Amino acid sequence: GEMAAGIAHEVRNPLTSLRGCAQELSEIHRKSGDQDASDLAGILVAESDRLARIVEDFLALSRMRQPRREQLALAPMFDELRQQLTRSPDMPASLRFVIEVEDGTPPVLADPDQVRQILFNLVSNACDAVRSLAEPQLEVRARSAEEDNPLAVPAVELSVRDNGSGIAPEIQERIFTPFYSTKSRGTGLGLSLVQRLVREHEGVLTLDSAPNKGTTLRIYLPIASVTREFARALGGG
After folding, report:
1. Model-level pTM?
2. Which of 41, 92, 94, 133 satisfies CB 3.0 to 4.6 Å to 26 for a cystine?
3. Helix 190-200 crosses helix 35-62 at what angle (to 10 degrees)?
4. Mean pLDDT across the chain, nearest whole number?
């Protein structure tokens, strides 16, 4: 972990300098009327940004800490997410979204920062999937899970659904593999990080997708009282 973080740090510093130089070259060539050279420098800037995202995601994986759990009500976090989607310039302009916590949804015992990271990654992926659509749609919901949920204990279900092009069956098994991405600008680490964070919370992540039918990712987290029972059973008080 420390070695990986050190390597990432050493890569990030010169990468920042390279990006700055490429940005300056792009501006110089644009002002001089050499559009081809400006475009080439612009590609260097874009690829530098992509490498920077890879480094940041790699750092997040290498430094991933144990969850600092607390009893977490999801409604305030969903309100925060709703505000971010409303104000963010990166969201598709015509995006129709629903952010909803069903009445009676119990709290989970979870790390608030890591749950935010999970939701941000999933919502970001969903927005990328619908960005080119005329009527992009996104739903983020939380509710009490059914009794026959994958955890087989009382749980909360978090779901993120989009109406994008979906994911082919032969690709679905690979999308959680580090550095595998179906996006030209993707790092291939976002979903891998999400899966690890969910597992650290004793949860389960499922995928429901088909070509031209959109994608739904569901996260099942045990409710707070259940995780406390787990801790007592293990002698944790």
Report:
1. 0.70
2. 41
3. 20
4. 83
